[in-house]
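Marked as duplicate of an earlier ticket. Keeping the data here for the record.
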Amino acid sequence: MREGHEGTGPGAITPDGCAVDLYTRLPVGDEPDIITGAVPTGAHILELGCGTGRITHPLQQRGFTVTAVDESADMLTHVRGARTLCGPIERLDLDEKFDVVMLASFLVHAGDAEVRRGLLRTCARHVAKDGCVLIQREGPDYHTDVPRERVDPNGFTVRIVSAEPVGDGVNAVRAEYRFPDAVWTQTFLARPLSREQFEEALAEAGLEVDTYLTPDGTWVRVVPAAQRSR
């Protein structure tokens, strides 16, 4: 298990504390609608951190080609119809370019700043000259509105139990997922980033914001800095 990360509950647990069986149950939200509205029809998408294919499969159904990457082989066994690659995202180097690179699941908030830099360099390395990167950020009150819970229409409850400082601007976040027949927990490290800090991190990787796609700023379309300067 990665330091500072922990997961409990039935089934396999990934190094960052994610429960594979849990992710096979989580429903897709509005992510496919946001992505479809932000990228060209039929684009080839490099999905970094695809998990069990919760977003991968709806994107394929909408006509996108997806190359799905995850560090967990257990997660990837659930992905169907996509080219899959297993390994650390921050070290990925395919010598290929993609119309769209997607970094969802709040991965840009990795507790380890070097990992975050590696993730963004991977995005910059793989996006086509005229392509874009889609990044999902935490909401502005993600670390302060705790504890909080949401009852999903599908009959389970998601609870963010706590977000406790552990040093160097990083919080240990504890989440619980309660289903009628099973409970999973995950503890992980997350680094809150203001909009200014987020944009500074992008600039360091040679990227910049094209537009914030949602009113809360959680989904962002990013482009290579050279693209904006032309």
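See parent ticket for discussion. The first helix runs from residue 20 to 25.
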